[in-house]
Amino acid sequence: MIIDITPEMRAKSKELSLKIFGKEKGLGWKDKFKTGYELAADYVGFLGEIAFAKAYKLPEPVFLERAKDDYDFLIEGKTIDLKTKSEKTKDFLINIPQYERKKGKIDIFVFGEIYGDYFRVVGWVEYDRVPEISRKILFPNGSRAWALKKRELKKIADLIV
Questions:
Q1: What are the CB-based long-range contacts (under 8 Å, 24+) for 29-35?
Q2: Contacts of 44 by beta carbon, 8 Å cutoff, 6+ apart
Q3: Domain segments of the chain: what residues?
Q4: Residue 25: pLDDT band by 50, 70, 90 thresholds?
Q5: Three-class DSSP labels, 43-99
Q6: DSSP state, residue 154
Q7: Which residue did the predictor score with more confidence, 31 or 59?
Q8: pTM for the model
Q9: For 55-99, how does the pLDDT look when each residue is reduced to its tens digit (9 = 90+)?
């Protein structure tokens, strides 16, 4: 399913991102990518969540304190964390410290991608399968992530009808 990204969706994503990592309103959370691009990463993530919510008629994301940020969506009793990448990123990435922090709180990761003004859901995988189908990468700045290829993901139609 392809969703058009509207200016309103972009504005909402920016608003939510600034609440988390904006210079004036931010909570001082550590830049998990250690690159200075945390705000951009949050923006892409929220934009994906807003588009996913629209596609599947779910409640839009809201700002939650980190301690309460266990999952993004609850669908048919399954807790879902949506991971969104932009067209600039080759693989889907899951930050390893975040993955470990969410153990027991996430059932499924769903993956989407943004290309220009469009969002597309690509696929999904169970939480426990991530290490088995991914490769661990270490960035020069010390950040660690699981990298997943599209071909390793299950079809979204197998999860959401």
A1: 29/66, 32/95, 32/97, 32/98, 32/143, 33/95, 33/139, 33/141, 33/143, 34/139, 34/141, 34/142, 34/143, 35/139, 35/141, 35/143
A2: 84, 85, 86, 114
A3: 2-158
A4: very low
A5: HHHHHHHHHHHHHCCCCCCCCCCHHHCCCCEEECCEEEEEEEEECCCCCEEEEHHHH
A6: B
A7: 59
A8: 0.84
A9: 999 988 776 655 566 899 988 899 999 999 988 888 999 999 999
